[in-house]
Every structure is written in structure tokens, then in C-alpha cells.
Design a protein that fits this description.
six-stranded mixed β-sheet, four-stranded parallel β-sheet, elongated, about 20% strand, 14 strands
Length: about 425
């Protein structure tokens, strides 16, 4: 799907409900509606009106109540809108009723996010994940789409000619087709997971640490990856600009190289189907050696955004993974005292401020004390070379008067060959030698 041009942009009215009976995270607010407007903009539309309704509980049939439906319909007409987007999740029947009564297409936040993901996915894996989430979202809504036929066939012998049966038949046909598609996509994504597991095993065998960058959408994750690795990812100021994971190599020292990965941005009320579908990608978080949680320090809502990310990290089973909180956009931070602490660093990925401190903190966490050493092994000690191949990373071997070896070794391995080390490591001095 290509992005819409300015000539064909959808004109959208945004609607949100704040109800005492709804959980706090499900309620709409002025802030969440502003975020919804940014999502509409990202999808290629424009917001032409906004309405926030307060009531004790959602109304079963229309969600916001008949009076408010009429008010929204008038606003749609006045603004010549062709789309209504709800900030809250609608049931399939509510979506159908609202579409009928307002005379334009009605979608909810989840449907809008799915549409954006469909536009943004570039790789085969990304498209598979989005397609699976779309079908899972669509399946329960089929009844609503075929509701007029279901009602007609349910009325027995008085049904109009041509409507006795086909509605149900078509509905069941569509359901079967979608279930088959879901099963096939799930199978394809399991294959993706299997390939990732093999790659992960290979990394672990080679002892390459993995760093995962996570954060709220538009927190600056891609800009940070570019700043650290020259990854060349287009970093634009729009929501969900990155869907497909990018992994780059980052050299922290001459003996410590890590893989660092950018991930899809999180957002409040992220559709459950999307989290499930993207688990093939996001499960990397649980296997990462370190998580960089990027927080937009310039956003007044950063605490709420950080809480959303923390919740999703827990949902993905990565709550035990060590992490650093990276407060980005510190060049436009408005507070008096910058966030600080052992596991916190303030940076500006745009200007480069704070990046050396961040790199040092990553190195301290992941540098396992490996040393690049040179060894001179007598030929009768050739068995030590076999041990080095098993326990260290042998870089060069030259045969002369002795076997000259250059390898990356841990302290433990060095302890077994220290008598033959000729460079790159010095035995620690005793206290009386200082």
C-alpha cells in the first residue's frame, strides 16, 4: 500500500471516550487524542475535528451514546470528513452500527495502527507479521460485515428471495479462508523464529553480545543507531517509521564487539494481535544481553510512555534482561535537573552529546575481560593450541621456531597458558611490588 498524496488525504474526525468504568489505560484523554491525530497524519490523513466524551460507562450499542453519535455525525458533515477514528477499542458490532449511523467509515485505534504497519512493512518478515495481525483483527469482525445477511436469513421463511442461506454460507467460507491464512502465516513465522534461533545459537557460540534498542515510537531509536554505527537508517520525525529490525556491529574496544538492533516502536494501546504477531522479532529482547530503553526526555509525558514500554517488555518476558535507561533529546530537555543514576545516561543522538558516556556504560556491562594476547608455544605443547581453539578466539597461527599464536582469551584461559604469553597481558602485581 502506498502513502496517500495530499489530493486524496482522508479527512478524519477523532472521537474518544473517558469512562469511570474503563481501566485507566483504556480511557481517552486530550493527550491520547493528540497522539491519535499524529497517527492519522502518519497514515496519510488529516485531523479535521476532535471530540472527547465523558460518561460513567460505555453505551453497549454505540459506545458513546445516541446523542453523541448525532453530534459526531453533524461534525462529520460540517467538516466534509470521510473517516471517523475512535481512540478506544470498538467491538465489531459497535463499529458496524457507528458506520451505518454516521454514513462514513468508522475505525478504531487498533485498525489505524494496523493500516500504518501495512504501509511501513518492507521486508518479507515484516509483511508476514502485519498480515497475520490484520487477519486476526478481521476474523471477529466478519459477522458484523455480513450482519445484514445473517439477520435476513434468521427471519425464517419470510426472508427475501435470494437471501436464505448465502449470507451464512459466504460468512463461513470467509471464516474458513481466513483461518487457513492465519494457520499458514503462523507456520511461516514459526520458520522465521526457527531461523532466528539458529542465528542466536551461532552468536552465543561465537560469544557475540547482543544489545537491543527499545522505546516509545518516535523516541529517537533509529537516530541513536545511526549515531553509534553509521547505519544509514532514514530517521524522520513520524510515528512507526521503523518496523523492520536493523542490526549492526558496534566495536566497543579492540577486544569487545557487539551486535546492536533497532526494534519497532511501542505505543499505548498497541493492538494485542500486533504484539503477538511481532513476537518473532521482539522475542530477541528476551535473549539480548543488554536493553537500551530510549526515552524522549523532551516529551512532558515521558513517564507514562516509559511505563508503557516497561509493560510491554514484561509482556514479552524480558523483564530480567539488564538495561540502561537512555534519556534522548537532552538538547531540548525542559526540566531543571537531568535524569541521572548508575543505569541512566542523558544523550542527544542528534548532536552526539553524551554518546561517549553511553558507550562506556555499554562497554562496562558487556566487556567480559577478554584480552588479545600473543603466545609462543613449544611444539611439544601443541595440545594447548587445541584447547585455545575450543576456549578462545584464535586469530592467527604461524609456525616457526615455536608456534606463534594471536588469540582473544578470557582471564581463565590465560591462566592455563600464562607461561607462554609473550605480549598483550601482564600478570597482576603483588601488593609489595607497587
Amino acid at each position: 500500500m502506498t502513502e496517500q498524496t495530499n489530493d486524496t488525504r482522508n479527512r478524519a474526525v477523532l472521537v474518544g471516550l473517558s469512562a469511570h468504568s474503563l481501566p485507566r489505560e483504556d480511557n481517552a484523554s486530550e493527550t491520547s487524542l493528540e497522539e491519535l491525530a499524529a497517527l492519522v497524519e502518519t497514515a496519510g490523513g488529516e485531523c479535521v475535528g476532535m471530540l472527547l466524551q465523558n460518561r460513567d460507562a460505555p453505551e453497549a450499542r454505540t459506545f458513546i451514546g445516541e446523542g453523541k453519535v448525532e453530534e459526531v455525525a453533524q461534525l462529520v458533515q460540517a467538516q466534509q470528513a470521510d473517516l471517523v477514528v475512535f481512540d478506544n477499542e470498538l467491538s465489531p458490532s459497535q463499529q458496524r452500527v457507528l458506520t451505518e449511523e454516521m454514513g462514513v467509515q468508522v475505525i478504531d485505534r487498533a485498525g489505524l495502527i494496523l493500516d500504518i504497519f501495512a504501509q511501513r512493512a518492507r521486508t518479507k518478515e515484516g509483511r508476514l507479521q502485519v498480515e497475520l495481525a490484520q487477519y486476526q483483527y478481521l476474523l471477529p469482525r466478519l459477522t458484523g460485515m455480513w450482519g445484514h445477511l445473517v439477520r435476513q436469513t434468521a427471519s425464517g421463511g419470510k426472508s427475501p428471495i435470494g437471501t436464505r442461506g448465502p449470507g451464512e454460507t459466504q460468512l463461513e467460507t470467509d471464516r474458513r479462508h481466513i483461518r487457513r491464512k492465519i494457520a499458514k502465516l503462523t507456520q511461516d513465522l514459526e520458520e522465521v523464529r526457527r531461523v532466528r534461533a539458529v542465528q542466536r545459537d551461532r552468536r552465543e557460540k561465537n560469544e557475540v553480545p547482543v544489545v537491543a534498542i527499545v522505546g516509545y515510537t518516535n523516541a529517537g531509536k533509529s537516530t541513536l543507531l545511526n549515531a553509534l554505527t553509521d547505519a544509514g537508517i532514514p530517521a524522520r520525525n513520524r510515528l512507526f517509521d521503523t518496523l523492520d529490525t536493523t542490526t549492526r556491529t558496534l566495536e566497543l574496544s579492540d577486544t569487545c564487539t557487539v551486535l546492536i538492533s533497532d526494534t519497532v516502536g511501542f505505543i499505548r494501546k498497541l493492538p494485542h494481535h500486533l504484539v503477538e504477531a511481532f513476537k518473532a522479532t521482539l522475542e530477541e529482547l528476551a535473549y539480548a544481553d543488554l536493553i537500551l530503553h530510549v526515552i524522549d526526555a523532551s516529551n512532558p509525558e515521558w513517564r507514562e510512555q516509559a511505563a508503557v514500554v516497561e509493560g510491554l517488555i514484561t509482556q514479552l518476558g524480558a523483564q530480567a534482561t539488564p538495561r540502561l535507561e537512555v534519556f534522548n533529546k537532552s538538547d531540548v530537555y525542559v526540566g531543571e535537573i537531568r535524569p541521572h543514576g548508575e543505569d541512566i545516561v542523558s544523550i542527544s543522538a542528534k548532536t552526539g552529546e553524551g554518546l561517549p558516556e553511553l558507550l562506556e556504560k555499554i562497554r562496562r556491562r558487556l566487556d567480559t575481560g577478554v584480552h588479545r594476547v600473543t603466545l609462543s608455544l613449544p611444539y611439544d605443547k601443541g595440545g594447548l593450541l587445541d584447547m585455545l581453539y575450543r576456549q578462545a578466539k584464535v586469530e592467527t597461527v604461524e609456525y616457526g621456531e615455536t608456534i606463534q599464536v594471536e588469540a582473544l582469551c578470557s582471564e581463565k584461559t590465560i591462566g592455563q597458558v600464562k607461561a607462554y604469553v609473550t605480549g598483550g597481558w601482564q600478570p597482576p602485581k603483588e601488593f609489595w611490588e607497587d
